[in-house]
Amino acid sequence: MTLWDETTPTEPDPRREREGGRVVWLVLVGLVLLVAGGYTAAYLSAGDKVPRGATVAGVEIGGRTPEGAASALEAGLADRADAPINVKVDGSTESVSPEEAGLSVDYAASVEQAGGEQSWEPTRLWDYYTGGDDLDAVVDVDEDAMEALVKRLAGDLGTEPTDGAVAFRNGEIVVTDPVAGDAIDPDEARDALVAAYLSDDDAELTLSPSQPEIDDADVQAALDDFANPALSGPVTLVFGDSRIRLQPREFAPVLGMKAEDGALVPSLNTKKLTTLVASGISDDGAPVDASFEVVDGKPRVIPAKPGVTYDPADVTDAFLTLVAKSEGEREMKVEATVDEPEFTTKDARALKIKEQVSTFTTYFPYAEYRNINIGRAAELVNGTVLEPGETFSLNGVVGERTRENGFTEGFIISNGIFKEDLGGGVSQMATTTFNAMFFAGLEDIEHKPHSFYIDRYPVGREATVAWGAVDLQFRNDTPYGVLIEANLNPSTGSSQGELTVSMYSTKYWDITTRTGDRYAYVSPATRTLDTPDCYPNTGYSGFQIDVWRYFKKPGSDELDHSEKFHTSYTPSDTVICKPPGSID
């Protein structure tokens, strides 16, 4: 008989174990399916919507699709997106539009930033159901528009710095002092405008000192190194034996200084310099003699011009260096072909033509031929220069009175009566020039009074001329040159003409005069003519008269010598005109 221990366990039932494992598995599968279904439902419910609690710039957009959220955001920001922005700078306020600032809202990007997307990620589903932040809108900035606005604000609300400058005007140095400005920092301004956009805040900008690029030190260096030396004295250009001396007042306009790499550097107007140098030489390469002109009643020398052919670059390339040199080094030889003038500037100055020594004016009634003929004679005489010992000839200067020489027909005196011929009226030039010579104290060589007296001329001090027969001549017997100036103020139907002849030199004599009484009268005859060129005339007596000229040294009361002029006038006959052929 076999005995069993009551404590010995019985063998497990394999079938029962299998059934229990199946139940556990089924439970687990159910749980998985339950969770998966719920997660799927949560995913499907969230979709690509924005987290429920999301706001952008204070506008609630949560729980909406991206498209819906963008629309809601646009509607919510409609007033603020277009509202002007107040910009404050140093107590000044100016409103600008967002469009002018280049600011706009990127609605899609703002929604995307808030989390509007579809994803199986648990964190995404968690954020959707439990999250959502209050975010700022995504702002687009048109950088070109923003830059333009900031530049305008800087101009309106700030001040640009003033660079120092050095210029040359009227032969003098003109300095512009540098001045600091008030500037707006572009990056700070941009950030402030973006921050103020969509808010109720102002864009607060600050001004900070803006230093000029050319400061006091740069200006002083320009003065020391170039400007002051440049105008310290004349410069001389040497063309062969001719020297063109340019004064600072002449060449200053060709100089300049410009800002370059934070400094002032010399500059040159080459066109003006070429013109300036050309003014000292002849235009066509032929030499031009020195001459004179009268300015404000004072004679001055017009320098001679050598005939020069040269390369302008030889001057312009070296001129800036030349003007900055010190005294004694301000001269430059220019390679050139040179033809020297016969009458040089030195010759002209040696004549010592410095002042007016006489002037005389005569008047004449209106006649167009007088305006033409006297005007042409004055034009030819004007500017004549007599060197010491030289003799003036009116016929020699004026030339033959022809149409080709600019003259027309006018009345002359022939055989004691008026006739018409070319050059009538030129005797007005002879009389006026004679009187200017008379009071200048020059030596009378030849003069012939009119055959009968014309009352618009000074009695006993007048002269006539006729080409090839009668001339007016006088000699410059002083040690100085004499410049003759002749000016005509033409006559009109309502006013007399005026002819003035003046002489310029260094005063050598003080001249006074005395006119005696008329004497030895001769009665006029009467002529009856039937010629086609007869002009009627009411006659008057002839007579004789004496005029004295007294010479004293300038400033002296002592008479040096005197001179007597005797004139005998024939009668001016009465002329009666008859029809041609009526007198047998």
UniProtKB/TrEMBL annotation:
Domain YoaR-like putative peptidoglycan binding: 95-203
The keyword Membrane appears for this protein: yes
Pfam families, alphabetized: PG_binding_4 (PF12229), VanW (PF04294)
Membrane keyword on record: yes
InterPro entries assigned to the protein according to its UniProt record, in alphabetical order: Glycopeptide_resist_protein, Vancomycin_resist_VanW, YoaR-like_PG-bd
UniProt entry keywords in alphabetical sequence: Membrane, Transmembrane, Transmembrane helix
Chain ranges passing through the membrane: 23-44
PANTHER family reported in the protein's UniProt record: EXPORTED PROTEIN, EXPORTED PROTEIN-RELATED
UniProt protein name: Vancomycin resistance protein YoaR, contains peptidoglycan-binding and VanW domains
Source organism: Nocardioides szechwanensis
